[in-house]
Every structure is written in C-alpha cells, then in structure tokens.
Write a structure and sequence with these properties.
single chain; 314 residues; 3-stranded antiparallel beta sheet; 31% helix
Length: 314
C-alpha cells in the first residue's frame, strides 16, 4: 500500500481519526498512567484482569486505612470518551477516581472496556456487564473487594458515554438480576443520549452539534437501528420503567451540549411508572463533564461532595 493511500482519511471526528488502511488515531486521549499509591489522598490502586481472552480489565481503588470489619460501599465506574477514546488507565480518569474514592470513602472499580471502531458497540456494553457479573460472582477472590467492599451497597456511575453505559447496566440489571449484589444507586454524569429531534445546545454548539453526535453514534455502532435504538434513546425502551436501581442522581450543566437529553430523561423516568427517586443537578454556567476535565473548580468540588452524600446516605 502506498504512503498516499495510507494517509487517506476514511472518518474524521474531533476525537478520533480513522484512515483508509485501518489505522486509528485517537486525537483526544490523555496518557495512560500505572496504578500507584497516591500520597495526596492516601488512595491505593491496582490493576486486575477480568477476562484475558476478550480482554476486559479494571483498576481498583482503595481509600486510606480501610478497616475490614467496617465494609465500604462499592462503586463501579465506566469512563467517558464517546465509546472511542480514553481509558480506565488514563491520567484523566485515574485522577478522577482517586478523588472520588477519597471523597466518598468507597472501594471503586473502574472498568477498562473495549473501544470502537476496532471493537464497535455492543462490545463496551458487554464488557461492562461482564465486569459487574465478575464482581457478583466473587471477583476471582480479589482481596480488596472481598475484604473491604460491601456488596449490599453497590453503586454504578459514569460520565458521558460512561453515563450511557451506566444506564444500560441499570436496565439490564432489572432484566437479568444479579442476586449476590444489591444495586443501591446510579450516578449519570452528563450522559450521552440522543434522539431524532434537535434540542437545545445541540443546535449551535461550536463542535458537538446534533449532526456530529448522530454521525458518532452510527460510527461506534454501525449495526444499530439508529436513533430509535433504546441504548441511545432511552425513552424508546419498553423496559425503561423497570430501571434498577431505584435511586438515581443525574448531573448536567448549562453549556452541556446534551443538557436537554438529561432533562428529558429525568422527565421520562418520573412519568413512566418507574418506582424510584431521581434527582437532577443542573449547574449554571458550566460545561460537559466539568467535574472530570476541570477537577479543581468550586463546582467540581461541590460535585464530589454531592456524590459522596448520595453514596453514603442511602
């Protein structure tokens, strides 16, 4: 293959570029970092392999000085990145999970799922579900989870595409219950949802317009039924009212390009017969997943406090 052919672009997004020869260039990834003991927060981390053949893995976080006799809530986290970039092992998400673990005093499992386009959806959904099943079946005897995590107090969370995954897990957990764990709550941080109509900030966002987001969805899942698919358009799901767990916390922000999707999601839950409690935090003046990309702001600190309160007072 000639050099000219190998540089011909097949798909070009702000986040990712795919060339005609199959080469993929991720344009917005943060660098990966190894697990570590963090002197600032006292949080420890390690990596585990969940399934070596697929492969699926995770990074587990343990807060400062846990006591085995006082087991802690378990938080299962799914990172964002449009299903196509970022990692549970990236510097961006490693820092976010360390802060979350310290602030909420939880054991956290951050799932490393496969990415599109090499592994189009539903790979990320299946990997994320497999990780939860791994936890429910004993996590291969992992000492941190077995000694310090309370499987009767399990929470799931994610930002952007990870928020979409957390929603998917919430629906699947209602249909295929995992009896050995008790899902208490879910946290959706600026979740990635879509639909046929153009709403709010999607109309005039400088980068993430509805046309862009629709193209991205079709790119990461070329086998999808499109914008009717309940995984991108939850209100189209006949099982929406079954969503499990029964406590839900949603974050969005004034300049989040998916803000209206979160508002509709909450309204849909309230009106569909779902027997749960949902709270939506709509922050004035901030942007998509502000708590991840701008962690030192007062708004992000307030976000962490709210997450800690949600987890520890259920």
């Amino acid at each position: 293959m000639s050099t000219e052919e190998s540089t011909e672009i097949l798909h070009d997004f702000i986040l990712i570029r795919e060339y005609k020869d199959g080469r993929v260039e991720r344009l917005a990834d943060s660098p990966k970092v190894p697990p570590s003991d963090d002197p600032l927060t006292g949080v420890r981390s390690k990596d585990v392999i969940i399934d070596p053949e697929i492969p699926v893995s995770a990074r587990i976080y343990l807060p400062r000085a846990p006591i085995p006799s006082q087991k802690l809530p378990l938080l299962v986290f799914y990172h964002g990145g449009g299903f196509a970039i970022e990692s549970a092992f990236s510097a961006l998400y490693d820092a976010h999970l360390k802060t979350t673990t310290a602030e909420a005093n939880v054991v956290a499992v951050s799932v490393e799922y496969r990415l599109a386009p090499e592994h189009p959806l539903p790979a990320a959904y299946e990997d994320s579900w497999l990780a939860l099943k791994w936890i429910s079946s004993g996590s291969d005897g992992d000492e941190w989870i077995s000694q310090f995590a309370d499987l009767n107090r399990v929470f799931i969370a994610g930002d952007s595409a990870g928020g979409n995954i957390a929603h998917y897990i919430s629906i699947r957990a209602a249909i295929e219950p995992l009896g050995s764990i008790n899902l208490i709550g879910a946290i959706l941080n600026c979740p990635f949802f879509g639909g046929e109509e153009c709403l709010g900030n999607e109309k005039d966002h400088p980068h993430f317009t509805k046309e862009f987001l629709d193209r991205l969805w079709k790119y990461v899942w070329n086998g999808s039924t499109g914008l009717h698919d309940p995984r991108i358009n939850p209100l189209k799901d006949e099982n929406f009212h079954k969503l499990e767990p029964k406590k839900l916390l949603i974050f969005t922000a004034e300049h989040d390009f998916m803000r209206e999707r979160s508002l509709i999601y909450k309204e849909g839950l309230v009106n569909c017969g779902w027997e749960g409690e949902v709270e939506l935090i709509d922050l004035e003046g901030d942007h998509h997943v502000y708590s991840v990309v701008s962690p030192d702001t007062e708004n992000s600190k307030s976000f962490m406090k709210k997450v800690a309160e949600f987890i520890n007072y259920q």
